[in-house]
Amino acid sequence: MIVLNDTHDPNLKSWVTSSNITGSDFPIQNLPFGVYEKGKNKERPCGCVAIGDQIVTLSDCLAKGLLTGKAKKAAEAGAGPTLNPLMALGSGYWSDLRRQLSILLRVGGAKTELQELLVPMSGVEMCLPAAIGDYTDFYSSINHATNVGSLFRPDNPLLPNYKHIPIAYHGRSSSIRISGTPSKRPFGQLKAPDAEFPVLDACKRLDYETELGVFIGPGNKLGETIHLEDAADHIFGFCILNDWSARDIQAWEYQPLGPFIAKNFATTISPWIITMEAMAPYRQKMFQRPDGDPKPLDYLTSVVHEETGGLDINLEVAISTPQMQKNRDTPHVIGSPIFCDMYWSVFQMLTHHASGGCDFRPGDFFGSGTISGAKKNQLGSLLEVTLGGKEAIEFPNGETRTFLEDGDEVVMRAWCHKDGAARIGFGECRSVILPASGSKSK
Ligand code: CA
């Protein structure tokens, strides 16, 4: 169920004035959690919350004695180097912490106690917000699946299972990095269509995938399932995810078991976790399946889910070439996908993932799959934009790209806005491509 409370009141203002500026990603209605490195030598990662362009450290709120009850316990769990203990507590604790932080940070709150303890975001480095145990990547945009399928099977782009199962593969959590960390072009086996044998070489067709990342809360026991109606209580929150993809490595290796080296060399996520509760105003009707499409099986549908399973999120992916960075040009927007076009909801993905009894642990993570809309300007990967590298994109300065080159920076953003609710943003997910290093095969 969607519970709206006074933390969502669009008229709320904070004494942290930067959060009240129109267009701020982090107004008082957002209050996302993250982890930053504190101290002279950045030796102490600690849990925090974003407000405007400032950070509030959870341990500071505790030291000042500003939190009570469940909120105090939640802050104690979230004050350490990862948010996993906070994620484990469950939605009652998260909600109480959000409410007390909202009261402390709103006009008339704890300005006297906290103002001197605010930390400017610009002066710190953010860390991964959780120790991510397991990572799964879904494939839930039917537009993306159709576009990619069309490149390989023009007459039969969607495989028969697509409209029945939220498709996914198990990804690699060890190579997930926080926004701002460079990503190295991978080496891998490449085989040109007309070549007899593969060679080991640097990827020539490096791509991004614009996705939503989902952090799991308390989780379930092995052998237990997660009912669709309970799925929201198992989701701690959301971030932006760039699932870097080496298309030439992928093309040679993906059959029969799916992506491997093409995906496991790097994944970049944005640092702030937008909580499930902060997203409440942006829950909406599910994507309406076209007439003739099958209904999902019973465990993946319900009346409530049809009304509230969708998420109204706008995304944007942009590229900044080395030349553009040198000239301080604005990164050029390549695609503006919308999440409400997704064929499967985050709740269906989670419920299906657990339907065989697979257990989730606090801090486990999954990606939505590349988010692509039906229009040409709503595509979430270069593979789709350039039709598999056949049509180059041109930037305002005349440079062109089919796939990413060394030094290119990919910048993703996401935000939610609608009448009657405060606009909230996700911040940025950015990373620059470093050259491959290694040796070619002869
Ligand atoms: Ca992906």
Can you tell me the number of structural domains? 2
Which homologous superfamily in CATH is the superfamily of the largest domain?
Fumarylacetoacetase-like, C-terminal domain
Report the β-strand fraction as a percent range: 15-25%
Count every helix, treating DSSP H or I runs of 4 or more residues as helices. Answer: 12
Task: For the structure shown, list the relevant keywords.
alpha+beta; 8-stranded mixed sheet; SH3 type barrels; globular; 2 domains; binds calcium ion; 5-stranded antiparallel sheet; 442 residues; Fumarylacetoacetate hydrolase, domain 2; 26 strands
What would your notes on this structure say?
The protein is of the alpha+beta class and 442 residues long. It folds into two domains: 6-127, SH3 type barrels (Roll); 135-434, Fumarylacetoacetate hydrolase, domain 2 (Alpha-Beta Complex). Helix content is 20%, strand content 24%. It contains twelve helices and 26 strands. Helix 2 crosses helix 4. The N and C termini lie far apart (60 Å).
